Amino acid sequence: MIILTPDQIQMIRQHSEQDYPNECCGVVLGIFGEDGAKRAERLLPINNAREEEARYNRFLITSEDLMRSELQARRLGLDIVGFYHSHPDHPAQPSTFDLEHAWPTYSYLIVAVAGGVSAELTSWELKSDRSAFDQESIKEEEA
Ligand SMILES: [Zn+2]
C-alpha cells in the first residue's frame, strides 16, 4: 500500500495533463513504514528525457535524475519509495516496458490520461521474482 495526500494526487494528475499527449514522470520520496506501507512525503517531477519521437509511449528517468533525487531524499531524511508516470490514452496498466524497467520494493504509480484529462490512478509493486506486477492499494490521507 502507498499513502498519498489529496494534494500529492492532485499534483500527479496536473503533471500528467500538462505533459499530455506526452508521458510525464516523477519520483516519489517518502518513508517505508514498519507495517509495509509507504508514505509519500515529497514528489519530484522529472522532465521526460526521451527523444521527441519516443516520448509518446516511454518514460525514462536518467541516472542523473536518479542521483539528484537520491541526494535530495537524503537531504530531507527520506527515501525514494516509488515513481509515477502517465499513460496518455492508454489504461493505467503497466506495459511490458514498465515491467522490464522496474525494480522490486518501489511503488509504480500510473495515471491514465484520456483525451488530456487525467483518469484512473493505480499503483503497482514488482513481484520479488520480477515476473509480474501486483497491484497495490492507494490510500488518500491528509498529512
Ligand atoms: Zn508505463
TrEMBL record:
Keywords: Hydrolase, Metal-binding, Metalloprotease, Protease, Zinc. It comes from the Bacteria. Residues 2-139 form the MPN domain. SUPFAM superfamilies: JAB1/MPN domain (SSF102712). InterPro entries: JAB_dom_prok, JAMM/MPN+_dom, MPN, VirAsm_ModProt. This is MPN domain-containing protein. It comes from Paenibacillus plantiphilus.
